[in-house]
Design a protein that fits this description.
The complex is a heterodimer of chains A (475) and B (474). Chain A has 475 residues and is an alpha+beta fold. Helix content of chain A is 39%, strand content 18%. Chain A folds into three domains: 290 residues, no CATH class; 107 residues; 57 residues, Arc Repressor Mutant, subunit A (Orthogonal Bundle). In chain A, a hairpin with a 4-residue loop joins strand 13 and strand 14. By secondary structure, chain B is an alpha/beta fold. Chain B has 15 helices and eleven strands. Classes of the chains: A alpha+beta (475), B alpha/beta (474). At the A-B interface, loops of A face helix 9 and helix 10 of B.
Chain lengths: 475, 474
């Protein structure tokens, strides 16, 4: 979408990601999603009087890993208290980093070749979660409010980009690439739907070449789709406002996914004065060179590097294939694809089965070895298994383990003799004269009709390619 | 009541049962608590059960800890599992901590027997215990006067022979000042020597827990038991507990003692006279006396009354009625928090929350909180320079002996000045001890203060012991 008449949007993103640590940031409680409310709590994450925080070293390491991947400078840092009253925040202050964050500067290169600068990536603790019953569903006017403190004290890293983003597509690409990096570093599972990655977008508009306009911050965008739509809407709203002679008021806005609009949450004048000051219960965090090197050395390859390695192996980098490749990269299935390519499987098949079949059943990934994956695909490629049969075999291995050859055998997946297939094809041609004549006169779509009918009759034992060969021989 | 040392020895040897020691303590509490208002809660059953358990272990021939059978009074800002903990505030009404402070665990591990929780100025904010929401504590030495504060209940408990040992907390002098006013030893350890886990925070960067006792040796025994690294407190020093008792009689021969003008000027004549005599005692014991001036100490009070309230404004935010303690219902959650805090906090606490909130506010931070931090750095540097010329410093603990009830409540500044000599050590995080030496007006005890560099507790105890002997308590 373009804003028209020389307008451009200026966007910076603040991405909050929950760190995938075993325990919370300042106590030993489990950091896990979906437990019964208020079961993963203790005096520390409930902020009981007299309790004190002790920093989780693993959270620091994951923050350093993120910083390293974003080319940040890992710096001596401190923790501050951000003071404001809210019932889901048990101490009525949040421990965060302020003027001395652990990761300073950096950048993220996007697949389209553009670069977005990173201002900082700092550590902070998450709050609990409020549910407001009755009234508007917001805190004021609710009949009752319930608070679940399971999330209280879960470690977060907030990654703040520079105001370098100029389109909603670029914003989505940035968030997607960042998500890939967070997964690759092991810092996050990237599950936006579970809130483990939340995005605030700072949006302003200007005519090209002019100074930045007044920005509005849109809070809590929980999917890439919302992110794109919210930015589009907000930029258009601001342009309309300015073209009508109005001015943009600096404010925090709420995105309503159902209506597709943003609305005022609070204006700048009402903003809290957070009264930041050094958290006296924690000591300075000064990661030494040796620690930084250890974190850097333990870092897995980032998506950009893996994308380069995989694309290089593609004979035909068609757009659909590249999309599937992103799924492979996102889910870390590169070893399967690379092994299949090494074993002589065509790139399309090597990627498709990973991006579809494996991706559909990730929870059981440990049942599937790289060797079994390659073997199954080779059986499919040689015609020993039909596509349907190969998918069934993969699903079976993912569900229960086992090797492809014996599974194929136990399921009775034996290739039809070519004579037998020919008989089936002849039979079908006879029964469907109209379709056959349309196929003969060049309507290639009808090939799929015949393949489908053959599959039905042979209960999936036929190989699609063999069927087409038989059809062509009779054309 | 006998000393910590004698009690523990007799109990360990089986010469006396822990139960009989504890019964003696409980009897004294029953006899005098109504009059003095020392304890907010007495855990008779818990204390007896602990004493019985200890006696059984001794009967089985098991080794028991260094504080075996010693009744201990805990300031009511220290958490003890299942025991009401109020900070002398209505806002914590009904709250019972589900956990022990580290110091409580360590006392229990050493065989000490907690007998109850003592009165304090609400959230440890005050110097007379008059700010308690539950009424003041009387000074056992003169019941028309205050015991000092904020650990006034802990000081009175020991002075009134209800327990030979009490723990207090010292943010700006809250152990040393009441120790001085009640004729006791009071120790503010090096910051980080004693874990703060389970101490309900007033000002986290200044708070330290320490003992109040009748003798130097008792204080050394208690501090040894509670000190040492605690992984639950990130500001806890990494070293294990220091050896203190073994050095109590090391004396001061060869030590350079700095007499600091700013820690004496402004004190009453009787107090000044005691400090001067204490200096002579140390000189006679072989110390070299150096006259020092540390002008930065004069700025300490102002800096303290910005830093401490600033931290307090944040530390006390959690008392909002949502999770525990008092809740005053109102229209919505914001109104509920406001109504709860309005009803739950006393005047002094509100005054400090407002001061601290203001000092941290946008536009005022640099002029107030930021400036106070600079003064704090100046104070630390000034101490460092002083310790190039002296091994320990001497001055008064507090400007006067125990004062009458109500004499300073109308004027917060007059009350704040009670802490003028004790505050510098909190700002620097270095240790100091108050030791009774001589008497002043109305025959009341005077506290002399010894200060030393970080982790010099053994040196301070040795100096205090010299004064204790000279004062007629061999």
């Amino acid at each position: 979408m373009t804003l028209g008449d020389g307008w451009e949007m200026v966007v910076g993103l603040e991405v909050h990601t929950e760190l995938k640590t075993k325990t919370k940031m300042f106590c030993g409680c489990a950091n896990s999603f979906g437990a019964e409310p208020n079961t993963n709590v203790c005096p520390i994450c409930l902020g009981l009087p007299g309790s004190l925080p002790v920093l989780n070293v693993r959270a620091v390491e994951l923050a350093m890993a993120i910083g390293t991947a974003l080319h940040s400078t890992i710096s001596p840092s401190t923790f501050h208290r951000k003071n404001y009253f809210y019932p889901d925040m048990p101490k009525d202050f949040q421990i965060s980093q302020y003027d001395l964050p652990i990761n300073v500067g950096g950048y993220l290169d996007l697949p389209d070749g553009s670069r977005v600068s990173i201002e900082r990536a700092h550590l902070e603790e998450d709050t609990g979660k409020s549910t407001h019953l009755g009234g508007s569903g917001r805190i004021h006017g609710a009949d009752r409010s319930l608070v679940d403190y399971n999330r209280s004290g879960v470690p977060l890293v907030e990654i703040v980009s520079g105001p370098d983003i100029r389109s909603s597509d670029q914003a989505r690409a940035y968030a997607a690439e960042l998500r890939g990096i967070l997964i690759a570093t092991g810092a996050s599972d990237g599950r936006m739907e579970e809130g483990s990655m939340r995005i605030d977008a700072n949006v302003s508009v200007r005519r090209a070449g002019e100074p930045f306009g007044t920005r509005c911050e849109i809070k809590n965008l929980n999917s890439l789709r919302s992110l794109g739509r919210a930015i589009e809407f907000e930029a258009a709203r601001q342009v309309e406002l300015l073209e009508g002679g109005g001015t943009v008021r600096q404010e925090t806005r709420h995105w309503d996914e159902n209506v597709g609009t943003t609305s005022t949450l609070r204006v700048k004048e009402d903003a809290d004065d957070y009264r930041y000051f050094r958290e006296p219960d924690l000591v300075d965090l000064v990661p030494d060179r040796e620690w930084q090197d250890r974190v850097a050395a333990g870092l897995a390859p980032m998506p950009a590097e893996r994308r380069a390695v995989l694309t290089q192996r593609l004979t035909d980098p068609a757009p659909a294939l590249l999309d599937a490749l992103e799924v492979v990269i996102d889910l870390g299935l590169d070893p399967f694809v690379l092994a299949a390519l090494d074993g002589g499987v065509e790139s399309e098949l090597a990627i498709a089965r990973a991006a579809n079949e494996i991706a559909g059943d990730l929870d059981e990934l440990s049942n599937l070895s790289v060797e079994s994956y390659v073997a199954t695909l080779l059986m499919e490629q040689s015609g020993e298994l039909s596509a349907t049969q190969a998918k069934t075999v993969l699903a079976e291995i993912l569900a229960h383990g086992g090797d492809p050859v014996s599974i194929a055998k136990s399921k009775g997946f034996e290739r039809l003799a070519s004579g037998a297939l020919g008989e089936v094809v002849d039979e079908l041609i006879e029964e469907n004269p109209d379709e056959w004549s349309r196929y003969r006169s060049g309507d290639e779509k009808l090939a799929q009709f015949f393949v489908g009918q053959v599959m039905k009759l042979t209960k999936g034992q036929a190989n699609g390619k063999d069927v087409i060969a038989e059809l062509q021989a009779r054309r | 009541m006998r000393s910590v040392r004698d009690t523990a020895r007799d109990v360990q040897n089986g010469d006396e049962s822990a139960l009989s020691v504890v019964e003696e303590s409980l009897a004294q509490i029953r006899a005098r608590n109504e009059e003095l208002h020392v304890f907010l809660y007495v855990d008779e059953d818990g204390a007896r059960a602990a004493a019985n358990a200890l006696d059984e272990r001794i009967a089985r021939g098991e080794t028991v800890g260094a504080l075996a059978g010693v009744p201990v009074a805990l300031k009511d800002n220290l958490c003890q599992t299942g025991i009401p903990t109020t900070c002398s505030s209505k806002i914590l009404e009904g709250w019972r901590p589900p956990y022990n402070a580290t110091v409580v665990d360590r006392l229990l591990g050493a065989g000490a027997v907690p007998v109850g929780k003592t009165n304090l100025d609400e959230f440890a904010m005050g110097s007379s215990t008059e700010n308690s929401a539950f009424g003041p504590t009387r000074n056992p030495l003169c019941t028309s006067r205050v015991p000092g504060g904020s650990s006034g209940g802990s000081a009175a408990a020991v002075a009134a022979d209800m327990a030979p040992l009490a723990l207090g907390s010292d943010t700006g002098g809250s152990i040393r000042q009441p120790a001085a006013l009640c004729g006791l030893i009071g120790v503010k350890p090096s910051y980080g020597l004693v874990s703060r886990y389970g101490l309900i925070a007033f000002a986290s960067s200044l708070d330290q827990i320490g003992p109040l006792t009748k003798t130097v040796t008792d204080a050394a025994m208690a501090l040894e038991a509670i000190a040492g690294h605690d992984p639950l407190d990130s500001t806890s020093l990494p070293e294990p507990s220091p050896s203190l008792v073994a050095h109590v009689d090391d004396g001061v021969a060869g030590r350079r003692v700095g007499v600091v003008r700013e820690l004496i000027d402004g004190a009453d004549e009787d107090v000044v006279a005691s400090v001067e005599r204490a200096v002579e005692v140390l000189r006679d014991a072989g110390a070299t006396i150096v006259e020092l001036s540390v002008p930065e100490f004069r700025l300490g009070l102002s800096a303290y009354y910005l830093i401490a309230p600033a931290e307090a404004s944040s530390n006390l935010a959690r008392f909002d009625g949502v999770r525990y303690g008092l809740r005053v219902d109102a229209g919505d959650v914001t109104a509920m928090m406001e109504a709860t805090r309005t009803a739950g906090f006393g005047e002094e606490v509100k005054r400090r929350i407002m001061l601290g909130t203001y000092a941290l506010s946008a536009g005022y931070y640099d002029a107030y909180y930021g400036q106070a931090l600079k003064v704090r750095t100046l104070t630390i540097d000034a101490f460092r320079r002083a310790y190039q010329e002296a091994d320990l410093l001497i001055g008064a603990t507090t400007p006067s002996v125990a004062f009458e009830f109500g004499s300073k409540t109308a004027d917060p500044m007059a009350m704040y000045l009670s802490d003028v000599f004790t505050i510098p050590s909190n700002l620097s995080g270095e240790p100091a001890i108050s030791v009774p030496f001589g008497t002043g007006e109305a025959g009341l005890p005077v506290g002399v203060q010894l200060l030393g560099p970080g982790r010099s507790e053994a040196r301070l105890f040795a100096g205090a012991r010299v004064l204790e002997i000279a004062d007629g308590r061999p």
